[in-house]
Every structure is written in C-alpha cells, then in structure tokens.
C-alpha cells in the first residue's frame, strides 16, 4: 500500500522519546517532513538530529504553548498537514488525594494543549482541504486504570472532542481520530512501577506493546488511504480492552 506521505508535513508533539518519537520516526521513514517538540532542549535536539526533523522546545502545559508550537512548525515546514497530539500523562493519584491545583494543571497540560494545537492547525488544513489529526490518548479513556484518576477523566473527554470535531471538519477533507495505547514499554510505564511480567500475562497477546506498534497505526491514519476513517478511538493494546 502506498501511503502517499512524501509531500506531507507533520508535527508530532511530545516526541523526544517514547510513543511520540516512534510516530515521528515512522512518518519520516514514509517520506514526510517532520517537526517534533518536547520540553527538554537536549532531548529535542537529539531526537531531531536522529530523525532528520525540525526540533521545537516547548512546555505544552504552559497556556498558549501548543498553539505557538504549531505556528513555529508552520514557519519551518511551510504548513502542517498532519498533527499528532501527544501529551505527557498526569501524575497518578486517587480522587481523595488530588487537590484543585492538580486538576487544573492536568487540564492545562492534557486538555488545553490538545485544544490549542488543534485550533492552530485547523485553519490551514481547511484552506488546503486536507488534514489528519491523530490524538494519542490511552486505554484509560475507556477502562479506568487504578490510581490514574486524572488521566482516566480527562482522556475520556478527549474522545468526545475527537468524535464531535470529526463531524464538523469531514467535509473539508480532514480526519480526526484517537489512538489508545495499551501497556507499552516507555518511560511512562516504568514510572508507574507496575509488575511488568504479571501485566504481560494478562494481555491476550502475552506481551507488552512496543512504541512501533502504535506508530504503524498512527502513520496509516495520517495517510491518504485512511481518508474515510474518522471519529474513531482505536486501541493498540494486544487485545487487552476486550478481555477486561
């Protein structure tokens, strides 16, 4: 299958490592010009050099930062045809443990950064009558993960945004989809300090996910052949959601 990405330009948020970097690498391998962003300058520079991408330093939790990243990417790439929204997971915690400040910080970093980036990228996509928006969420958006109250709540809301927005922009040649990674070998999984052997045994595929597993699906959703797929939340989880 020809994905026809050679003339496309993509911005991948949160792409200095993990899932974001894997998606950026897969897009670049298909011939797309890519910009990546993250908050750590050294890691962004290293990822950009490795991928042959444009590197943009930004703290996406800061108000207005996500929109500024899109504008900077447009300056460097000329346009943004593909937007991959990927934000860091909020810290763990039970409802009773979380103060108002934690909710506000998570809302800015996860929800408003997603909205800001999409708002900034959409006008150009509409003008060109072509665009792909992929929002990386989590299986926590569909089935709550213990102690991840912030992520469980806010990521589920993003699915509502994806569904509703997809209907508003479909006639403009723009698709909007969500990807739900399952338990994938990244720094985030290590931070949660889970028993990975026990966890893998609960997954029908009997293994943890690899970043490239999700990247392959993301690249397809960003492609020309995926133009009739929109408003979907697709799990990349080794069959876990169907088993819990």
Q: Which features would summarize this protein structure in a list?
A:
8 helices, Rossmann fold, 7-stranded parallel β-sheet, 244 residues, 7 strands, alpha/beta
Structure description:
With 244 residues, the protein is an alpha/beta fold. The chain has a single domain, classed as Rossmann fold (3-Layer(aba) Sandwich). The protein contains eight helices and seven strands. The model has no long low-confidence stretch (mean pLDDT 94).
What's the gist of this structure?
With 244 residues, this protein is of the alpha/beta class. The chain is 45% helix and 15% strand. The chain has a single domain (9-243), classed as Rossmann fold.
Layout of helices and strands, plus pairs?
Elements: E1 9-12, H1 18-29, E2 33-38, H2 41-51, E3 54-57, H3 65-77, E4 82-85, H4 100-128, E5 131-136, H5 149-169, E6 174-181, H6 187-191, H7 196-202, H8 211-221, E7 233-236
Parallel strand pairs: 1-2, 1-4, 2-3, 4-5, 5-6, 6-7
Helix pairs in contact: 1-8, 3-4, 4-5
Strands of the biggest beta sheet: in what spatial order?
Answer: 3-2-1-4-5-6-7
- Helix content class: 40-55%
Number of helices: 8
CATH fold-type name: Rossmann fold
Mean pLDDT equals: 94
Task: Compute the CA-based radius of gyration.
Answer: 17 Å
The description of the largest β-sheet is:
7 strands, parallel
Alpha-beta content class: alpha/beta
Q: How many individual domains? A: 1
Per DSSP, what share of the residues sits in E-state strands of 2 or more residues? Answer: 5-15%
